[in-house]
Structure formats: structure tokens, C-alpha cells
Design a protein that fits this description.
The protein is an all-alpha fold. 83% of the residues lie in helices and 0% in strands. The protein is built from four helices and no strands. It has helices at 2-34, 44-64, 70-86, 91-120. Helix 1 packs antiparallel against helix 2 (44-64), helix 1 (2-34) runs antiparallel to helix 4 (91-120) and helix 2 runs antiparallel to helix 3 (70-86). It is elongated.
């Protein structure tokens, strides 16, 4: 039980660090292709800070939940919620961050399963 939790926390912390790095990379590529970031409606930086907080909280929950059917559903709900939140004001960012948050969460779930199997022997 302890190995599963440690593997889950390690994989999801790595996922959170990757989220930060890929967010920065996404903004860098966006500014290189389209110029500076315009701000309409909800300020982009504050909106993405909220997205990161929700992402980190969801990943903590995913790390502590037992394996089952809830984890893929929770990853899908996370991606859909991010998309619905960002699409009215930032449609391109909504697509990028919904795929990033849902996909990285699912990859962290898969990595935690493999890591816990590896650590058990």
C-alpha cells in the first residue's frame, strides 16, 4: 500500500513539473508564431494559475485513489472542465491546456501503475 502511494505521488509530482514546463513551452511557441499574448475577458495568467491549481489538486486526488474506473473518468472530467472554462475567452489555449491537463494526468496514472509494479518486484 505504501509503495503504491509513493509511486503515485512521485509520478503525479513529475506530471505537475511537466505541466509547468510544457505550459512555458506552449507560451513561448505561441508568442513566436502569433506575437504577444492579448488579454481579453479573464486575464490569461490568472486563468492559467487557476487551471494549474485545479490540475495539481486533481493529481493529488488521483495519486491517493485506488486503481479502478474512477481515474480515467476523472482525467476526462479534468480535461473537459479546463476546456469549458477557457474556450469562451481563449479558444486556442483551451484546446492546448485541456489536452495537456487531461493527457498528462492520464500518463501520470499509467506511470504510477508501472512504477508500483516495478518497485514490488
Amino acid at each position: 500500500m505504501k509503495i503504491r502511494w509513493m509511486a503515485g505521488l512521485g509520478a503525479h509530482v513529475l506530471g505537475c513539473l511537466l505541466f509547468i514546463a510544457l505550459s512555458w513551452l506552449g507560451f513561448f511557441l505561441y508568442t513566436q508564431l502569433f506575437g504577444s499574448l492579448g488579454s481579453r475577458g479573464v486575464a490569461g495568467g490568472l486563468a492559467l494559475l487557476l487551471v494549474f491549481y485545479v490540475y495539481a489538486g486533481t493529481n493529488l486526488l488521483l495519486a491517493l485513489l485506488p486503481d479502478g474506473r474512477v481515474k480515467p473518468v476523472l482525467c476526462g472530467v479534468l480535461g473537459a472542465a479546463v476546456f469549458v472554462y477557457l474556450v469562451p475567452q481563449h479558444p486556442l489555449r483551451a484546446l492546448y491546456f485541456s489536452v495537456l491537463s487531461g493527457g498528462l494526468s492520464w500518463l501520470a496514472v499509467l506511470a504510477s501503475v508501472r512504477l508500483s509494479r516495478y518497485l514490488r518486484g
